[in-house]
Amino acid sequence: MKKVGIIGGGPAGLTAAYLLAKSNVQVQLFEKDPIYLGGISRTETYKGYHFDIGGHRFFSKSKEVEDFWTEILADELLDRPRSSRIYYNNKFFSYPLVAFEALTKLGVIECFLCVLSYTKAKIFPIKKPKNFEEWVTNQFGKRLFSIFFKTYTEKVWGVPCTEISADWAAQRIKGLSLFSAVLNAFVKPKKKKSNKDGQKDKVIKTLIDSFRYPKKGPGMMWETCAKKCEAMGVMIKMNMSVDKVSLQSNGKWSFTFKNGQQSDEYDYIISSAPMRELIQSVRPLFPEKVMQAAKSLTYRDFLTVVLICKDNDVFSDNWIYIHDPSVKVGRIQNFKSWSPYMVPEPDHACYGLEYFCFEGDNLWTSSNEQLIELAKQEMVKIGLVQYSSVVDGYVVRQPKAYPVYDPNYKENLALIRDGLKSYPNLYLVGRNGMHKYNNQDHSMMTAMLASKNIIQGKEQYNLWDVNEDAEYHESGERAAESLANA
């Protein structure tokens, strides 16, 4: 019987464990967190309140992924209306765009200038855009870039937009243009059904108006998945941080953990651990140029300040993007709007203020009390709560939340991918495992394809094709086809 060792109990790791176990493959999974499964898609709790780490919609163009979610949670998945806004210049704008509202709040002159800027960008586009600013300017014009993209993006990444690769923009907002946004403002697209190839007809993800969501947050999906895995014989161990991943002379793999324990031997390894850490841990060592490439990969970190407040029905959005440089908060989640089951007291609300930072900087190292006070003051400044309505607070820190697409990331990844060819049966999956800004469903797709390869005993599917190019990330076509035909 084949035996697989999995590093990481997030969406990718647990998807692989579940699918492999269903095919009678022996699986052992190790998660470094002592409490939570789900990785960045986990749900944490505080005094009965449940909160998401970033907000995770359950929507995919892959029928295989949608079917997986349904198989795990079934009736525990809610259909939720999407409601989000942008806060800019002391005003709230619906997102996706509502044309007449934007016209009123931006003003006729500003809207006219935005259209002129857009027209100029279409007539005189920047050839071969290299960075985020150039790519978005080509799509929307310089003026709309400055209004609706620049401030928020620089909050997220902590660097100027000119230092972010155009690949990130292409992968996250491919297919969205001023035309499609305005069209959506006037004519809402019909809900699409899956076509005969098992994928959904084209719809721009950023414009969808509903999604599914587990009653008590995304962690409910992965905790339930873990229980079903264990029922099929999967061994799941928490608080197990891998120190070394060793390829033995007999072709088998094994782990050494930071607590000194040794693992069994495995025929295959699946890892969703951050690529920078994983490459450093592999034995025998990678060539020095590969090691240096891995060390050069960077990440953006993230913290959520949770505020429990008396519910004054101030806003009902799922989340609000904060495009205001006068406050540090980048996005605000309303967990009661995601699911009323997340909040145990009906007369209270639970908000999550998201701050993007680097591990070790002033924001990251601030005390919880300082962060809660900052969040209270910024919520008051934005006009979303009264200071006296806040009754409690809590802080969650999330290291390595986002793999950074700096100007050299693609060259570094190419070196690492080439180096991995010398290490058979080692699969890297998921967002941090592959250093790709995947959505949850794309991370799951990489695990699904890895599982297919292991079950079939041959390298039939290339995991790197998932989100390998900008068009794929948004359309989901290539992996949907691979999964449907497997």
Report the total helices: 20
Helix content bin: 25-40%
Largest sheet: 7 strands, mixed
Tell me the span between the first and last alpha carbons.
21 Å
- Rg calc: 23 Å
CATH class of the largest domain: Alpha Beta
What is the count of β-strands? 19
Could you characterize what this model shows?
- The structure is a single chain.
- With 486 residues, the chain is of the alpha/beta class.
- Helix content is 39%, strand content 22%.
- The protein has 20 helices and 19 strands.
- The chain has helices at residues 11-22, 63-73, 99-106, 108-123, 132-140, 142-148, 150-157, 166-173, 178-186, 218-231, 275-281, 288-295, 335-338, 362-365, 368-382, 409-420, 431-434, 440-456, 470-475, 477-485, and strands at 3-7, 26-30, 43-46, 49-52, 77-81, 84-88, 91-95, 210-214, 235-237, 242-247, 253-257, 268-271, 282-283, 299-310, 319-322, 331-334, 348-357, 390-403, 426-428.
- Helix 12 (288-295) packs across helix 16.
